[in-house]
Amino acid sequence: MTDRSFVSGSIAELLAAVAAGVRDAQEALGSVPPLDAAGRPVPTYQLPYVDFEFRVNLETRTTTGGMPVLYATPASAETSSISSVVSGRLVAIPPGEGRPLPVLELTAERLSARRHRLRVIAANSAGELLTGAPVELNFDLAASQRLSQAAGTSLAGLRSSGFEAAVLTTDAEGQAETVMTIDSGLPAAAIVMVTAELGLASTSLTVTAGAG
């Protein structure tokens, strides 16, 4: 950030502008697709903190309500001296303001040619099981198509593939299960991706359609 890359305003406004820029940058980093064209995971990036420094002239102004506010203006680029240096660090707070976050585990057991038992376990990052948690199951068609193509087969759609129950509620052990059926018309080499979601938490797994 250059000395003149912000407009004059209160210190609070400057800090809010920096925070907004950091948030926008993290959103841009987080928008990268989780898989590449071949279905392989791609690296992800996070900004745990950002150090900043302002070289500014500071003055105190009184608002109409009688409250003093510290205002800053960019230091002159034509002079070699400055009035103040304002520096600090913006530290990212994990989602949920540091409270334990949901964590999901999803597994599949093949029952027959095109039927799988799906089991989900919901807990939080503190290791506590989540009882009565609603977990939603979905197919990720776009990812399934990419993975199937990488495996050498074409997948136009999932046809009548589905779940006996698409929304599960975890029991006292934090678990829930249902049966997934893969349409018999899908190619045997097709790869199907299933996702499970609970609030902001999500996980996924892939299964091969297999012989119909």
Describe the structure.
There is one protein chain. The chain has helices at 11-30, 141-150, and strands at residues 9-10, 49-62, 68-74, 84-91, 102-112, 115-124, 134-139, 162-163, 167-169, 175-181, 191-198, 201-208. The protein has 212 residues and is mainly β. β11 and β12 (201-208) form a beta hairpin. The longest helix has 20 residues, at 11-30. The protein is elongated and about 75 Å long. 17% of the residues are buried.
Q: Topology of this protein?
A:
Layout (H helix, E strand, L loop, with lengths): L8 E2 H20 L18 E14 L5 E7 L9 E8 L10 E11 L2 E10 L9 E6 L1 H10 L11 E2 L3 E3 L5 E7 L9 E8 L2 E8 L4
Antiparallel strand pairs: 1-3, 2-3, 2-4, 5-6, 6-10, 7-9, 7-11, 8-10, 11-12
Key terms:
212 residues; 2 domains; Immunoglobulin-like; 2 helices; four-stranded antiparallel β-sheet; mainly beta; disordered N terminus
- Beta content: 35-45%
**CA(first)-CA(last) distance:** 60 Å
The portion of residues assigned to helices is 10-25%
Mean pLDDT: 84
Q: What shape does the CA trace take?
A: elongated
Largest beta sheet, briefly?
A: 4 strands, antiparallel
CATH 2nd-level architecture of the largest domain: Sandwich
Alpha-carbon Rg, integer? 26 Å
Widest sheet: strand ordering: 1-3-2-4
Task: Provide the CATH topology of the largest domain.
Answer: Immunoglobulin-like
| Name of the CATH class of the largest domain | Mainly Beta
Structural class: mainly beta
Work out the count of structural domains: 2
Quickly count the helices: 2
Order of helices and strands: EHEEEEEEHEEEEE
CATH superfamily of the largest domain: Immunoglobulins
Number of strands: 12
